[in-house]
Write a structure and sequence with these properties.
This protein is mainly beta. It contains one helix and ten strands; from the N terminus they run αββββββββββ. Strands 1, 2, 3, 4, 5, 6, 7, 8, 9 and 10 form a ten-stranded mixed β-sheet that branches. A hairpin with a 5-residue loop joins β9 and β10. The radius of gyration is 20 Å and the shape is globular. The chain binds copper (II) ion (CU).
């Protein structure tokens, strides 16, 4: 009877760890930090000047102890959404963008951005555009991206 107590406590501890620890398949190190903990903010779309394409910006913050990656994006308002990175002033499609542990991925004017193609209609200032973000490790996140004036710049930018 005196041996049962520690055994039960040990089992309970193991179960707690299995339930709350990082996904073993998502990390090569069992002692790495906690799972990614993502939040999406500062989302906006400058009102597009085109009937067919638009850009979108947002920030993904990761408070978790391991990195994640933005792998794909979709929207009911567009036939296709891709992630673009800007290198030496020219933009190109990115396969995926890293979100560092305890860091953030910034999609901002003049840099990385979302590219909406085959718009179902031209979004106007005051509307919101639904966007679903998918990640390598975390669950998908849906945000309502507000449409801002074409010349809008966030106060924290540049
Ligand atoms: Cu682009």
């Amino acid at each position: 009877m005196s041996r049962l107590g520690p055994l039960v406590v040990g089992l309970a501890g193991a179960l707690t760890l299995a339930g709350c620890g990082p996904d073993p398949s998502a990390s090569s190190s069992t002692s790495a930090g906690s799972a990614p903990d993502l939040a999406v903010g500062s989302a906006y779309m400058p009102q597009p000047v085109s009937d067919t394409v638009a850009a979108g910006f947002l920030t993904v913050t990761n408070e978790g102890g391991s990195a994640d990656e933005l792998t794909s994006v979709s929207s009911d308002a567009a036939g296709r959404v891709t992630v673009h990175e800007t290198v030496d002033g020219a933009m190109r499609e990115a396969d995926r963008l890293k979100i560092p542990a305890r860091g953030r991925l910034v999609l901002g004017s003049g840099g990385n951005h979302l590219m909406f193609e085959k718009l179902t209609h031209r979004p106007k200032q005051g509307e919101t555009v639904p966007v679903e973000l998918r990640f390598a490790h975390s669950d998908p996140v849906t945000v309502e991206m507000p449409v801002k004036p074409a010349t809008y710049r966030p106060t924290s930018g540049h």
